[in-house]
Amino acid sequence: MHKDESADEGRSLLSNRTAEVVVALLLLGVCTIVIFDSTRLGFHWREGEGPAPGYFPFYIAVVLGISSLINLLSALRGVGGGETFVAMRPFGRVLAVLIPSIVFVGLIQYIGIYLAAATFILLFMVVIGRENPLKALAIGVAVPLALFFMFEKWFLVPLPKGPVEAWLGF
Amino acid sequence: MVYQTCRDESQSTLKVPGTIIPTAARRETTGRYTVDEITSLIGGFKVALSWYNLALMMVGILLGVIIGVLPGLGGANGVAILLPLTFTMPPTSAIIMLSCIYWGALFGGAITSILFNIPGEPWSVATTFDGHPMAQKGRADEALTAAFTSSFVGALIAVMLITFLAPLVAKFALQFGPAEFFSVYFLTFASFVGMGKGSPFKVLASMCLGFALGSVGLDKVTGTLRMTFGHDELLVGFDFLIAVIGLFGIGEILSSMESGLKFSGSHAKIRLDAVLQTWKKLLSYWITSIRSCVIGCWMGITPGGATPASFMSYGLAKRFSKSGDNFGKGEIEGVVAPETAAHAAGTSALLPMLTLGIPGSPTAAVLLGGLMIWGLQPGPMLFVEQKDFVWGLIASMYLGNIAGLLVVLTCVPLFAAILRVPFSIIAPVILVICAVGAYTVHNSMFDVWMMLVFGVIGYIFQKLGYPLPPLVLAIVLGDKAEEAFRQAMLGSQGNVSIFWSNWLVGSIMTLGVVLLFWPLVTWLGQKRKSRSGNLAAASAGAAAVDRDK
Fold first, then answer.
1. Model-level pTM?
2. Across A59-73, B244-258, B271-285, B516-530, which has the greatest mean pLDDT?
3. Nearest CB partner across the interface for B222, out of A53, A60, A125
4. Which label site among B255, B310, B357, B505 has the fewest CB atoms less than 10 Å from its CB?
5. What residue spans define the domains of chain A?
6. Distance between CA A89 and CA A9 in Å, rounded?
7. What ipTM score was computed for the predicted complex, to two decimals?
8. Which residues of B534-544 are buried (b: 16+ CB within 10 A; e: fewer)?
9. Nearest by CB: A97 against B229, B257, B487
């Protein structure tokens, strides 16, 4: 069963152990940054002020560091190690949604959220979902329109708009 | 922007918790309890029973069930996204709608678990164990009725608990000083370590990451900038609403995409006679119901949360049931136990949020954020200053759950149809909604980018077994816990013994310390047992039961 599954999903891209190690190292990095800034802020007792601003972050970072070290060691010792974190095909599917999302968020700054949303939904449905283009067009237009009326008109919450909305007079 | 300023204001009033209490307020809360509460509750029903509020309640329940059914949207991030829409509403109406979304999401999780074997929410994972086998045997209507009814019973008991316990806790908490508040925060976080599943070091790492993120920005006590490294975007810090939308929303979309969701589920329509028959059967499981309610309420008030409560309740029901061996094959009791506990926990999580300003779950944390946006200070003073609001909310919990039960019992086919919409349509639409939600928190594009980053973190953390609720709660409560700690220390001139200076703060702190080191105790216990020749499985089971007690 397991064999079939892994064959179906492509070869393993990243083992659980590697992922655990990477995450533990990243958290150790966070720990270093926090400790670095806490020492600048001071983590000792200040007369009349109590614990200095760096006190709490410093000890938090110490706990973070110790737990990450233990997590790192147990990952290296191979507790639950050899299994696949993510295989080729599932990772492809994750990227298929992650990369368009990044492009979508990037587009918001230039063409406004409504047009970016329409483009994103339309292209995602057609290219990745292989849906009927007409259906995709309908949903791609309907969702931003609904959002527009809900936010700009009904609840009066302005969302980022681009040149097209400006041209239409909004 | 609006959000941040209100938050700052509310923080400054929190600086000396428990000391600015008008004497009139004190007198007011020392009345006769039960009578007082029932009159207050009737007043609350008057508030909640306006047409506007009833309409919002129905909208909330419907939205909530849809959110609960859809992958990628859940109670916490659903409420977070809709929060900006309530800025213009009166606070009571706003919280009625948002809390109803929460009830709806709690109900909705069961539909997908039973019909599609896909838990729409983490707390409905345990419902799939017996709920889906029942559906496969053609007893979907029975399983759904059992799930909805148990949810309703769990919530009802929890709301009753809130009605009578919350004013007491609030009154008690009026006397809290910084040390007491810190001890409660400490207990909150220690119980994540003590009651969590999986590695306690992952819980700690996740929690400390939350604290570290929470401490970025302006230090509220001294006005110093921390961890901003000269970046203006970081001045206001990381908002937990963004974290919630990213971790739970985007993260879940990524993991749903990874597993390549294909929905193939049973069809269901609930007929009235099936409902009545199931109700008759359910009566015989009253012991399971009571036990599950107790577990749920306990886990909700101490922030274990709905998810562990549902597993724990399922485990205990299996152990104590006469038909325990049939669990997992479609036993109705296996649906009753987790659903009752999950809903009881989800509801009672609002008790510490309302009375102490300390949320018991990520969704409660988001609702707490809402209170601050509407200019209300969560905590014991709420019961004195905002009676209409508190009792309106409590009354709406009764009404909302009744409305919820009716809605889900009648509209199951509709909600099941939503799940048959292909994921390639759902995914981009939910992503767009999440982006809008993240943007409207501070009107900032930086937040939308952060949402994506949190999404990736959520996806990876979930896969590696780093729990997300402690991370979120640490971002929300980090600065408050720190402030309480620093004030307590300042008051005692740096003497840690202030945390054991009276029986109240001392017992809360001691309980916190015990919970913090609980994993060590069970680990040592396991080690000794396995050394004395017992099976590892048996000792793990025993440890689990110990922890359950």
1. 0.82
2. A59-73
3. A53
4. B255
5. 2-82, 89-168
6. 5
7. 0.92
8. eeeeebeeebb
9. B257
